[in-house]
Design a protein that fits this description.
This is Amino acid ABC transporter ATP-binding protein. The protein is of the alpha/beta class and 247 residues long. Helices cover 38% and strands 25% of the residues. The strands form two sheets. A six-stranded mixed beta sheet has the order 6-7-8-3-9-10, with helices on both faces. A four-stranded antiparallel beta sheet has the order 2-1-4-5, with helices on one face. Bound molecules: adenosine-5'-diphosphate and magnesium ion.
Length: 247
């Protein structure tokens, strides 16, 4: 990571409820530009909800304040600016099935940034080469393996030159033999200065690549620290029992 003191994501008192059921109980979190943060924790602990609030894929309590690169995340005109800076990669890839791989990657730069088609195509080919699937450009997502589709999804997110990339369990839907190729791409990305927030069950990846690991449970940020702190000397019993169960 490029160490800078500049905060790119700031979360203050984040509360999120579904009806009377509160999913996030007041999360405070600052993430520095270039930082790689892995979020771990049991199923249902609010990991997805937390990162989906960062680009307002989920609405949250109006008292909560999230800013990305100084822009407040809330409904309205500024939201498009936030979303242009924040790329997201989902467990289920979410590619457009009726478009070729190349078109999937070209779409947002053309639509959102008004990039000319030829330039978008050239950039898309460069990105596909970067994630190791240049030769798949003219296929449709359904013709690719899961690992290849996820690499397309990463290329598509990168096409907008985001400052922040959010990953929600990017390898959880993959056959085991494809997990490594996606983690390799993410590991390389982590060295490029883009800020990454990665919800993952890949503890080896978190230990190796994260600058900071966050453990969530029950809609609360229970503990955070360096990978060695969280994995080797966690303070909280809840963290210890989770790690005993998964490691
Ligand atoms: P995680 O990603 O850690 O598994 P989630 O953020 O998906 O957890 O979910 C946190 C909690 O919010 C869970 O209890 C889940 O059941 C609940 N939840 C998520 N989405 C909805 C929804 N659309 N309606 C009601 N409850 C939801
Ligand atoms: Mg989740």
């Amino acid at each position: 990571m490029t160490v800078t003191a500049r905060t790119i994501i700031s979360v203050r008192g984040l509360v999120k409820s579904y009806g009377t059921f509160t999913v996030l109980h007041g999360i405070d979190l600052d993430i520095a530009e270039g930082e790689v943060v892995c979020v771990i924790g049991p199923s249902g602990s609010g990991k997805s909800t937390l990162i989906r609030c960062i680009n307002h894929l989920e609405a949250f309590s109006p008292e909560s304040i999230i800013t990305v690169d100084g822009i407040q995340v809330k409904p309205g005109a500024a939201l498009a600016k936030v979303r242009a800076e924040v790329g997201m990669v989902f467990q289920s890839f979410n590619l457009f099935p009726h478009m070729t791989v190349l078109k999937n990657v070209m779409l947002a730069p053309m639509r959102v940034r008004g990039m000319a088609e030829a330039e978008a195509a050239q950039k898309a080919r460069e990105l596909l080469a970067r994630v190791g699937i240049a030769e798949q450009a003219d296929k449709y997502p359904g013709q690719l393996s899961g690992g290849q589709q996820q690499r397309v999804a990463i290329a598509r997110a990168l096409a907008m030159q985001p400052k922040v990339l959010l990953f929600d369990e990017p390898t959880s839907a993959l056959d085991p033999e494809m997990v490594g190729e996606v983690l390799d791409v993410m590991r390389r990305l982590a060295g490029t200065g883009v800020t990454m927030v990665v919800v993952t069950h890949e503890m080896g990846f978190a230990r190796q690549v994260a600058d900071r690991v966050i453990f969530m449970d029950g809609g609360r940020l229970v503990e955070m620290g360096s990978p060695s702190t969280i994995f080797d000397t966690p303070r909280e019993e809840r963290t210890r029992s989770f790690l005993r169960a998964v490691l």
